[in-house]
Structure formats: structure tokens, C-alpha cells
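Researcher: Next entry in the queue.
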Amino acid sequence: MEGRMADETADYIRRPEYEALRDDVRDIDRQIAILKNEVSSTKADLQDLKQGLRDLLAEVKKGQSLRGVVSGGWAALGTGFALGLAKLLKLES
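Model: Structure for this entry, 93 residues:
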């Protein structure tokens, strides 16, 4: 009985339907490989975009802090000038 089942299985494997199934499996394997490659490429692109955003955010923060220093410096200079002028005017009067 066991020999008969082995013969039936061997006959089934040699049938044209099995070959068509093997071709389908090969096609699916190829498509999976292509999709895995595309996913890897997309992940790499996303990592590049994330790094670009981090760099851009760092530049914006740096620019805002520099802008804050410059505008704060001008405000301090103006305030210092006004206080100095007021002090000089009081001394003269």
C-alpha cells in the first residue's frame, strides 16, 4: 500500500498541472523578491528623508537662535543707548 501511494505521488508530480503550479510558485517567488527589494529601497529613502528633516530642523533651530541673538542684541543696544542718553540728559540738567 505504501508503494502504491508513492507511485501516485510520483505520477502527480509529473503531471502538467504540477509543472504549471511550479511555474506559478516561481513567479510568486520572483515577485516577492522584487517587492522585498522595493521595500528595502523605500525604507532607505525614508531614512534619507528623516535625516534630511532632522538636518533641516537643526538649521531652523540654529537660525532662530541666531536671529534671537541678533534681534535681542539690537534691542539691548537700543535700550542701552536710550538709558545712556537719558542719564546724560539728567546729568546736564
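Model: The helical segments are 2-14, 16-92.
Researcher: Noted, moving on.
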